[in-house]
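ok so i was messing around last nite and threw this chain in just to see what happens. nothing serious, just curious
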Amino acid sequence: MTQNLKHVVAAEPTSAHHASTGSNTLQAHRNELYGFVLKRVRDEAAAEDIVQEVLVKAYTRQRTLKAPSKLRPWLYQITRNSIIDYFRLQRPSEPLPDDLTYEHTGAVNRAERELARCLVPLLDELPESYGSTLRLAEIEGATQQQVASRLGLSLSGAKSRVQRGRKLLRGLLLKCCRVELDRRGGVVDYEPSQGCDSCLDGCKV
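result:
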């Protein structure tokens, strides 16, 4: 099911959590982050640009910081993602640094597996026609032709129902979770909202 998450998740909502992270606090990490970035991109101007972008992102996304004590690892996660974006956009022919390749792939795969569990209870909240269709397409991995055959629909009807169901499911998910995506649509991180019992129950390990 995780390979279909990008069809369900299409936007990054704003978290209800708030952490007061002033610009001075963020700037205190600038030199440390600059050294980390420079070691991987080996270009002083690019490293400076990336660090500036990281600090801007951190400032504008401070509401997504779960706890002030996690500021440093949170900054490094934003930094790693920014370096990955830099390589893919500016130096696409070059391989990612080994530590970033392994970490990014593992983090995305882990987040997608965990978030996939959140979707299962949310399917029960959809109208039955859409819930049953998405269970076939997303949970069982049926093709849209197989969905059409099993539900007695035309192929175009099955496609339409799957697309509509994904849109409804996306709406439910984004009410329950803050979801952070990378540029390819992969799920990098998520955070269930406290007020959503379905999502919290589904996301439990």
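not much to say yet. The CA atoms of residues 118 and 202 lie 4 Å apart.
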